[in-house]
Design goal:
By secondary structure, the chain is mainly alpha-helical. Helices cover about 55% and strands about 0% of the residues. The protein contains 6 helices and no strands. α1 packs antiparallel against α2 and α1 runs antiparallel to α4 (about 50-55). The radius of gyration is 17 Å and the shape is globular. About 10% of the residues are buried.
C-alpha cells in the first residue's frame, strides 16, 4: 500500500512556500515578515502550526496558488538584470496583472 501523499505541482509549490516562510520565521521573524509581506495574523498562525500540520493541509488546498506574482512580472522578466531589481521593488506594490504594459519588442531600449 502506498502511503505517500500525491500533490499537484501547485499544491507542492504552496506547501514549499509555507514551509519556507515557517522556517524563516524561526530564524529571523522580522526579516521573513518583511520579505514575504506577512501581516501579524499570518505571522502568528504560521509560527504556531507545525510542519506536519502544513503537510496534512497541502492535499486539501485547491489547485490555485496561494502566492501571486508581482504586478509587473513581465517587465521584470524582460528587463536587463540591473534594472530588474528596481522593477521588482516597484512591482511588489502592484496587484498581480496591474503592471505597466510592455512595449513591443522592437520599441524596447
Amino acid at each position: 500500500m502506498d502511503n505517500a501523499i500525491h500533490l499537484s505541482e501547485v499544491q507542492q509549490l504552496n506547501l514549499h512556500f509555507l514551509l519556507t516562510i515557517q522556517a524563516g520565521l524561526k530564524q529571523d521573524r522580522v526579516a521573513t515578515s518583511y520579505k514575504f509581506r506577512l501581516d501579524p495574523d499570518c505571522e502568528a498562525l504560521l509560527s504556531e502550526v507545525t510542519a506536519g500540520d502544513l503537510v496534512a493541509l497541502a492535499p486539501s488546498m485547491p489547485d490555485e496558488s496561494l502566492f501571486l506574482p508581482i504586478g509587473n512580472l513581465p517587465a521584470v522578466l524582460t528587463a536587463p538584470a540591473g534594472l530588474a531589481v528596481t522593477l521588482r521593488r516597484v512591482g511588489a506594490s502592484l496587484p498581480a496583472g496591474k503592471g505597466a504594459p510592455l512595449a513591443p519588442a522592437g520599441q524596447r531600449d
